Amino acid sequence: MKNGKREDELLEYANSQAGYFTAKQAEKAGYSYRLHSYHTSTGRWIKVDRGVFRLRNFPASQREDLIRWTLWSRNQKDKPQMVASHETALAVHELSDVMPAKFCFTVPSGFRKKVPKNFVLHRSKLYEGDVEKREGFSVTTPLRTLIDVAEGNLSEDELAKALRDALDKGLVQLKKIDVTKMSEKGKLRMLMAIKAIQEKKAV
Predict the structure, then answer these.
(1) Nearest alpha carbon to residue 95 among 157, 153, 46, 164
(2) Quick one: 42 and 136 in the same domain?
(3) Beta strands per DSSP E along 58-201
């Protein structure tokens, strides 16, 4: 493969992933394993983690952290395993004032990679309707995110703020929440959040 075409194909991956790409993506673009070491040694590529690289001169992106870890989570078929969820998803959707100290991801039950200490992993099956695709990573939908945090340990005040923000932005509808399956704990906390919003509006 000619150098120009090879570079163009690698740039296609990098452009959609904030400058990041995996070793397998580089191979698909035409860069043999031997060339990976060469481009790293010249400084053109930065080795971020095992099997994950970044183009040195690529502009910074707001969600680089999520993109990097999404690529890192890819399985042997080069398919991402982690989806941003819970408090991290609240931050992505800009719901409530939550500033999570740890990354929250949902992964399949069979996920076995060792993650850093500042990660919280939730093992659950996510369906197509539960996930939104973003540039270089995936995040749970606003509705799924609200259900997750309602079933978790987010404070009642923050849950109410998140729900109010989602309603104000038109990201969810109360009638949809009413018919969505969730745990008894989730239902109770969601009802309390709805009541808190309604009482605040009534004042």
Answers:
(1) 164
(2) no
(3) 83-84, 103-107, 119-123, 131-133, 138-140
Cα of 184 vs its chain's centroid, Å: 26
- At 64, give phi and psi (nearest 5°): -60, -35
Residues 34 and 133 reside in one and the same domain: no
Pairing of strands 83-84, 45-49: unpaired
| Predicted confidence (pLDDT) per residue in 113-157, tens digit | 988 899 999 999 999 999 999 989 999 999 999 999 999 999 999
The rounded Cα 47 to chain-centroid distance in angstroms is 21
User: What is the residue-wise DSSP string for 23-65?
Assistant: HHHHHHHT--HHHHHHHHHTTSEEEEETTEEEETTSPP-TTHH
**49 and 76 both lie in a single domain:** no
Residue entry with tokens 């008894």: 184
Per the structure, how many domains does the chain have?
Answer: 2
The 10 Å Cβ neighbour count of residue 140 is: 29
Same domain, 50 and 116: no
